[in-house]
Amino acid sequence: MGARPRSAARASGSALGAVNALVLNGRGDVLLQKRPRQKENGGLWDKSVGGHVSAGEDFDTTMRREAGEELFDDAGSGRVRLAGSEEEFAALVSTTADLSREVVLRRLSFQRNLRDVRRAPDGGVRNVLYHVAIYGGRTDVGAAGFRRQRSEIDELRYFTVADVDRMLLAGELAPNMAYLWLAHAYALVGWAGEARPEGGARGR
Predict the structure, then answer these.
(1) Phi, psi at residue 14, to the nearest 5°?
(2) Can you give the pTM of this predicted structure?
(3) Which domain CATH number covers 105?
(4) Spatial separation of the C-alpha atoms in residues 67 and 103, rounded to whole Å
(5) What is the mean pLDDT of the segment spanning 163-172?
(6) Mind giving me the DSSP string for the chain?
(7) Who's near 46: CB < 8 A, 6+ residues apart?
(8) Span 92-118, pLDDT tens digits
(9) Is residue 202 part of a domain?
(10) Measuring CA to CA, which residue among 176, 33, 46 is closest to residue 118?
(11) What is the pLDDT of residues 46-98, one digit of tens each?
């Protein structure tokens, strides 16, 4: 089947291609983005990076583009590095990459037929079916060091693991972010050493 516009695929009930990423710093804090009020899931905290696969792209290409756009307002940003394996990721994080200015990502898993539930801007409910590539990332860029994509993100902020747990229970996370957190947080926090059980938001 050839590529179709996103709206046509959504209307037909076909699955859309998407990428999601959760990025942590060296203290084990999680970078989240706050969705603008006028967007789907407006006012909720969402994953570090997320977006749809465009026609002609593979998932890794989309991840590089979306991370560049959302974190540095530049689709071709050289500050995004994508590792092709666990070994390459470890080498980049430990020796090669400059984590004070770069984000290093690698793919963790691929989820087919993920049924997402979204809050529409008018308060209604939308359902979208996704095939989604899920990535984890490491950086030591401070929250103020990012250049967020203002049309898609109101705020970027680091939160402790305990904060994110509380936000999940309080209904402050976008539904898809809740899934990512429950499915992948345990593996991710080990990348940055022991996660702190208590504490407030980072990099306000």
Answers:
(1) -70, 155
(2) 0.87
(3) 3.90.79.10
(4) 9
(5) 97
(6) -----HHHHHHHTPPEEEEEEEEE-TTS-EEEEEPPTTSTTTTSEE-SEEEEPPTT--HHHHHHHHHHHHHHS-TT-TTEEEESSHHHHHHIIIIIS-TTT-EEEEEEEEEEEEEEEEE-TTS-EEEEEEEEEEEEEEE---GGG----TTT-SEEEEE-HHHHHHHHHTT-B-HHHHHHHHHHHHHHHGGGSSPPSS---B--
(7) 32, 33, 34, 35, 173, 174, 176, 177
(8) 999 999 999 999 999 999 999 999 999
(9) no
(10) 176
(11) 999 999 999 999 999 999 999 999 999 999 999 999 999 999 999 999 999 99
| Closest among 109, 110, 141 to 24, alpha carbons compared | 141
- The verdict on residue 152 lying in a domain is yes
Q: How many domains does the chain have?
A: 1
Residue type (1 letter), 195: A
Domain-embedded: residue 159? yes
Domain coverage including residue 11:
6-192
pLDDT at residue 26 is higher than 90: yes
In a domain, 197, yes or no: no
